[in-house]
């Protein structure tokens, strides 16, 4: 199935359409993208934030839009 992945402020920013397994989860996508070395980052699927503890249980579906980015800072 195809999903759209966007990396924001992570050194290799951009959006790409990827082919993933039918059993893919938000967590397995992190592995495929090689993001394990990123200390802290946030994720959204179809505009909704996904807590780090929920990524392994969040199965992706055809056409999902997934964004990964570092925590927002400011003041």
Overview of the molecule:
- This protein has 75 residues and is mainly beta.
- It has a single domain (2-69), classed as Roll (Ubiquitin-like (UB roll)), CATH 3.10.20.30.
- Helices cover 11% and strands 32% of the residues.
- The protein has 1 helix and 5 strands, in the order ββαβββ.
- Strands 2-1-5-3-4 form a 5-stranded mixed sheet, with no helix packed on it.
- Strand 3 (42-45) and strand 4 (48-50) form a beta hairpin.
- 11% of the residues are buried.
- The model has no long low-confidence stretch (mean pLDDT 87).
Strand order of the largest sheet: 2-1-5-3-4
Coarse shape: globular
Whole-Å distance between the termini? 40 Å
The total of beta strands comes to 5
SSE order, one letter for each helix or strand: EEHEEE
Radius of gyration: 12 Å
Secondary-structure class: mainly beta
Number of helices: 1
The amount of helix comes to: 10-25%
Strand content is: 25-35%
Throw out a few tags for this protein:
75 residues; mainly beta; Ubiquitin-like (UB roll); 1 helix; globular
Give a quick summary of the entry:
This protein has about 80 residues and is mainly beta.
Layout of helices and strands:
Elements: E1 2-7, E2 14-19, H1 26-33, E3 42-45, E4 48-50, E5 65-69
Parallel strand pairs: 1-5
Antiparallel strand pairs: 1-2, 3-4, 3-5
């Amino acid at each position: 199935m195809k999903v759209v992945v966007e990396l924001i402020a992570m050194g290799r920013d951009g959006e790409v359409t990827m082919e993933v397994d039918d059993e893919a989860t938000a967590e397995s996508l992190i592995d495929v993208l090689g993001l394990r070395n990123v200390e802290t980052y946030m994720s959204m699927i179809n505009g909704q934030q996904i807590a780090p503890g929920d990524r392994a249980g969040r199965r992706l579906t055809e056409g999902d839009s997934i964004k990964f980015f570092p925590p927002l800072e400011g003041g």
